[in-house]
Amino acid sequence: MQVRLSEYTPDWALRFEREAAFLRGVFGGEILRFEHFGSTSVPGMKAKPVIDMMAIVRDISAIDGYNDEMIALGYDAAGDWGIPGRRLFRKGGEERTHHIHFYEAGSPQIARHLALRDYLRARPDEAAAYSSFKEELAARFEETSGYSPAKKAFVSELEKRALAWENGRKRRGE
User: Fold this and answer.
1) What is the CA radius of gyration of the chain?
2) What phi, psi does 57 have (nearest 5°)?
3) CA dihedral 91, 92, 93, 98 (to 10 degrees)
4) Strands 75-77 and 98-104
5) CB under 8 Å to 137, separation ≥6 — which residues?
């Protein structure tokens, strides 16, 4: 898939809300809550215009029973896609619009993703540095098959800082 970086737009938050409302109708009581995460959830950041959504559910194994329905609705059911305990659905094919990551309540993946989102929202300097790094990579790589692995080490370090920041906030009772 081709790398497509876009300027931030408030429309991303609206697209998240619309998709969350639609998916509540599909999954009903399975969903505890939705979270918008990833670069499209950070005001001012450049991002691939793909909305990353997290659906926190009671029982991750129950989500497998929705694969056929989600495929019929135009999603790609990708299973755990390399992260045990996750179920991933992708919408839009080659012109992807949404990634819906399902995690069972209590999964450590939830805290990791939300800490990074909150850290980037609170630290515009870090968001700007990440945004610039992504622009550099997009200039070097036309396809996500090169772009995504190239940013892995940078994101890993960013996540470590975000988790330390989040742990500090918890210790201070924020």
Assistant:
1) 16
2) -125, 165
3) -50
4) unpaired
5) 3, 147, 150, 151
Question: Contacts for 82-89 with beta carbons within 8 Å, 24 or more apart?
Answer: 83/109, 85/60, 85/109, 86/60, 87/60, 87/63
Residue 1, pLDDT > 90, answer no
The CA distances from residue 51 to 2, 42, 48, 96, 110, in Å, are: 16, 11, 8, 9, 16
Question: How much is the pLDDT for 2?
Answer: 85
Q: Which helix (H) or strand (E) is 57 found in, with range?
A: strand 51-57
Q: What is the pLDDT of residue 4?
A: 86
Give the pLDDT mean for 88-109.
95
Dihedrals φ, ψ of 85, to 5°? 90, 0
Nearest CA among 41, 1, 7, 11 for reference residue 134: 7
Q: What is the mean pLDDT of residues 107-133?
A: 96
Look at residues 59, 45, 173, 48 and name the one whose alpha carbon lies nearest to residue 119: 45
pLDDT tens for 143-170 read 989 999 999 999 999 999 999 999 998 8
